[in-house]
Amino acid sequence: MTAAPLPTSPVPAAPQKSAVSWAMDVLVWGGVIAVLLYSVDAVDLGNISRLFSGNDSMKMFVHDLLRPDFSDWKMFVAKMWETIQIALWGTFLAVLFGIPLGLAAARNMAPAWVVTPVRWLMNLLRSVPDLVIGLLFVTAVGLGPLAGVLAITLNTAGVLAKLFSEAVESIDKGPVEGVRATGASKLHEIVWGVIPQVAPLWTSFALYRFESNSRSATVLGLIGAGGIGQVLFDSMNAFNFKAVSAIVIIVVIAVTLIDTLSQIMRKRLL
């Protein structure tokens, strides 16, 4: 006796987009394409052929870049180490500021009258470029790595606070409500209900920003905020492209090592 075949449910129809949805897609992507075409002249894209034209300066530049000069490698490495220390301290201080700001900016943790001004502050810190903040601190504290540390701290604090707040807003309410049911205070809710859920994401965000800040600290050196950027800027002004090539190679090696170390730390901590 054969078993009766199991009833099969009908295959649902593929989702259909409405005419309004299609029109919005065409409007959005058509607008992007229109802006790209309109801005071709504004960004001088029509003259990209100059990049490949016979330019003696460009030939000399490429020729020297392919022959790096490591005669001052000890100084280059020392300055690169200073750059890494600037990025490390800037990221560390940014995390210290970003945690309370992130909690205060989370809508499920703080009232609206706290969230709104904190988010405005975060937007301000993120919108001002590192170089502008660095120039302000160079004026305030003078040339040197301290200006770089402070510039990275402010900008990164704004970025991390936003990422931290978004992580807090996406947590599961269950553990928090469980801690609250014991009669615990708000601080205990955060420590035992919120932090364990967001700690892995916060760690990942902080490590990523440290990698980014290692590159940002190099650029800040161009305005006298310490690190290898100043040496790179001086070498370029002196048309010493062989030294520039050596510095770039050292920066690439350092950033690669930092990226590898960050991956190892993520595997250990997450």
From TrEMBL:
Domain ABC transmembrane type-1: 80-262
Subcellular locations according to the entry: Cell membrane
Transmembrane regions listed in the UniProt entry: 20-40, 86-106, 131-154, 217-233, 239-258
UniProt cross-references to InterPro entries, sorted A to Z: MetI-like, MetI-like_sf, PhnE/PtxC
PROSITE patterns reported in the protein's UniProt record: ABC_TM1
Keyword Cytoplasm part of the UniProt annotation: no
Principal location: membrane
Keywords attached to this entry: Cell membrane, Membrane, Transmembrane, Transmembrane helix, Transport
GO molecular function: ABC-type phosphonate transporter activity
Membrane topology of the entry: Multi-pass membrane protein
GO CC, any one term: plasma membrane
Family as reported in the entry's similarity comment: Belongs to the binding-protein-dependent transport system permease family.
Protein name listed in UniProt: Phosphate-import permease protein phnE
Organism: Brevundimonas vancanneytii
Top-level taxonomy: Bacteria, Pseudomonadati, Pseudomonadota, Alphaproteobacteria, Caulobacterales
